[in-house]
Amino acid sequence: MGFGSELKPSQLGTANQLVHAGNLSLQDLREFMRDWAALEKDHGQKMEALVKRYQKIKDKKNPSLSVGSTGKDSTATVADPTGEFHLDTDGSSYVKVWDELLVITGQVSAEHLGLADRMTDEIVEPCRVLALKKEDARRKHMAYCQALLDRRDEAFADKDKKQQKYNEASAHALALQAKFERSVNDKHHDRHRRQYEKALIAKNHAQNQYLLSVKVASQLQAEYYERDIPQLLDQLQNINESRAYTARWFWTRWTELQTQTSQRLQTHMGQLGQTVKGINPEADTQHFIARNAMQWSRPLDFQFVPAPQSNDRSEFELDEDDRVFLTNWAAKQRQALKAVNTQIGQTQVPLTEFQQALKVTDPNSPMGGYNDLLENVMELDREMMTLRWDQATYNTEVRELSRVVRVVSDDERHQFKSTTFAIPTVCDYCNTKIWGVGKTGYNCQVCGLNCHKKCMLKVPAECAGTPTAMQRQRSLSRRSSRTPSIPTPVVAVANSSGRAPNAPPPPCPPQSTKPRRSAEAGRAGDLLGPSDSESDSWDGNNSDAENNGHGSTFYDTRSDLPSYSASQAAITNGPRQPTGIAIPAHRPSNAALNAMPRSAAAERGHLSARVLYDYKGTGPQDLPCRTGDVVYILPDDQVGTGWIKAELHGRQGLVPLNYVEIMTATDMAQAMPEARVLYNFTARDASELTLHVGDLVKVTNDRIYEGWMEGILRGKTGQFPADYVQKI
């Protein structure tokens, strides 16, 4: 027998009062021992005054310690079937110890002075620590009980809120239906029909949500009354009984000290010791239960209540839009259920270990591990209780929805990832833009579909998989037909945290809408070619808009290089090796080249920015730069608002955001001088560029060492002899 099986949910507060009174009595015990040690020096009269003082305290608190504030006064005898204890009509064994204690206290007024020091060291201070721990454990437990009750009430309130929303949506749909039926011959008949269909869909959504909330509220109510409250009551019982074990140990130790101090008090201390050993927490528990027995039954389950003036049934609405939404919702909740089940399994392992250790641990010693084990078990029990609430919620929704819709497996559904679009992107569901700081959308990592957060659950759950280039082209063509025009975006300077966005190179438009471009645009495209991280998804001349979700224009210079003029052709058909021009022999070794700082940001195609003001920096994390320098913006989620992480001459650091301006492709093309290749040059290792006569190279460093330059050609950065090119 225990609190959980015998007491009712409404008696949780009564059990809490018992535990609280017990914890206060443990504090009283500590204060008693402290006062005793002080009064040992004063003997006689002060000791007698102490007895009178605690007699009043005992008389006041005895009812709370025995039967609680609402317990029955009628006497009863409760016997244990095993014969281990017997509960008589005088009250709890715990209260009896107080009675005997005060009697003995009146006889020890001449106690030895040395007893005071031993009591302080061995009883008073440990008792204070344990009393605080017990009370803290009770407060924590009751706080969780209140949180659980609040969560239950929140579920009930959510049900009522969704019921109200459903009622309003139903009333609105009925009103529009009436208007639609009255306007048969009206010129606005079609508009009324559309309004009514839209309202009907909204009503169906509201009805489904309300029905789900009814199921969840009923399930949570059952969990609360049938499992959680009994378990919480049992845990209160554990706190109360462990406190009694603790008090019993202190009293036993105190009696031993008294015996050692004075042989004259051995008889009295022995009598008190026997009384103290008679403390039986189980018997006290049964005494409390017997005085607080009452009848109680669990509330009935909730039922679906149709909206007024509607004929809705307790069934899900399964129109096409409803099926899509419910299928997505079921898949989402099933994913959440898997995570909760994993957490339950992970929590159950240590819980079982603690429970097994608790069974073999002696509860009589408060300095041992019993109390710590008990607190660990209770903490994990509460955690499991919370997880089971989530499990019950997800289980109920998945079970109910699997009866009416197909639950899409994880391999079939979209793999959405929350994304902030620094460049305007069209939502593939509603054809409106996703753009702006704080306007988070979602991108499928498999098929590249983009959508608003509000549209995610309305998109058909089945993912078509990674699109081919032709599929992406058709998708872009359809999007272009849906959206008349998308203005060229302005690259955002900072994202929501104030840092420069890690903007990937803008994709190429569909072939049918691709504008003609000049040679200057082609050279700018070389600078903004696909980065290393995007090379896997790059598809030649075709755009990758479905994957990166950006709507700006990008020209692939690999297929749109400017044609050579006749003079250039003559140069090309001329001698392939320069005469009289040797490759500089004092080029550093490969090891030295690898040790030199490289412009990795330029190779990866990061955004560039022009420095507007000199910045010297205030610490090692800053990047000193001068007016006119061109820096590469690096992505970094740890940079605070108002700062960007940038790279200059191979060094990385922080620069104030308002000290720079973002450069467009034209700006970058103008900032980097060009050089025309005069002679063919074959790269001898990965750090060099292979040049062909007539190539145009973007010069990033015109003198990295004597006779050598660094530049960008066809998206690759490398070194080449300075005498093999001519700046233009």
Automatic annotation (TrEMBL):
<feature type="domain" description="SH3">
    <location>
        <begin position="670"/>
        <end position="728"/>
    </location>
</feature>
<feature type="compositionally biased region" description="Polar residues">
    <location>
        <begin position="538"/>
        <end position="560"/>
    </location>
</feature>
<dbReference type="Pfam" id="PF00130">
    <property type="entry name" value="C1_1"/>
</dbReference>
<feature type="compositionally biased region" description="Pro residues">
    <location>
        <begin position="502"/>
        <end position="512"/>
    </location>
</feature>
<dbReference type="GO" id="GO:0046872">
    <property type="term" value="F:metal ion binding"/>
</dbReference>
<feature type="domain" description="F-BAR">
    <location>
        <begin position="1"/>
        <end position="284"/>
    </location>
</feature>
<feature type="domain" description="Phorbol-ester/DAG-type">
    <location>
        <begin position="413"/>
        <end position="463"/>
    </location>
</feature>
<dbReference type="Pfam" id="PF00611">
    <property type="entry name" value="FCH"/>
</dbReference>
<keyword id="KW-0862">Zinc</keyword>
<dbReference type="GO" id="GO:0030833">
    <property type="term" value="P:regulation of actin filament polymerization"/>
</dbReference>
<feature type="region of interest" description="Disordered">
    <location>
        <begin position="466"/>
        <end position="560"/>
    </location>
</feature>
<dbReference type="GO" id="GO:0030864">
    <property type="term" value="C:cortical actin cytoskeleton"/>
</dbReference>
<keyword id="KW-0728">SH3 domain</keyword>
<protein>
    <submittedName>
        <fullName>Protein BZZ1</fullName>
    </submittedName>
</protein>
<dbReference type="Pfam" id="PF07653">
    <property type="entry name" value="SH3_2"/>
</dbReference>
<dbReference type="InterPro" id="IPR020454">
    <property type="entry name" value="DAG/PE-bd"/>
</dbReference>
<keyword id="KW-0479">Metal-binding</keyword>
<dbReference type="InterPro" id="IPR002219">
    <property type="entry name" value="PKC_DAG/PE"/>
</dbReference>
<dbReference type="InterPro" id="IPR046349">
    <property type="entry name" value="C1-like_sf"/>
</dbReference>
<dbReference type="InterPro" id="IPR027267">
    <property type="entry name" value="AH/BAR_dom_sf"/>
</dbReference>
<dbReference type="InterPro" id="IPR001452">
    <property type="entry name" value="SH3_domain"/>
</dbReference>
<keyword id="KW-0175">Coiled coil</keyword>
<dbReference type="InterPro" id="IPR031160">
    <property type="entry name" value="F_BAR_dom"/>
</dbReference>
<dbReference type="GO" id="GO:0030036">
    <property type="term" value="P:actin cytoskeleton organization"/>
</dbReference>
<dbReference type="InterPro" id="IPR036028">
    <property type="entry name" value="SH3-like_dom_sf"/>
</dbReference>
<dbReference type="InterPro" id="IPR001060">
    <property type="entry name" value="FCH_dom"/>
</dbReference>
<feature type="domain" description="SH3">
    <location>
        <begin position="604"/>
        <end position="665"/>
    </location>
</feature>
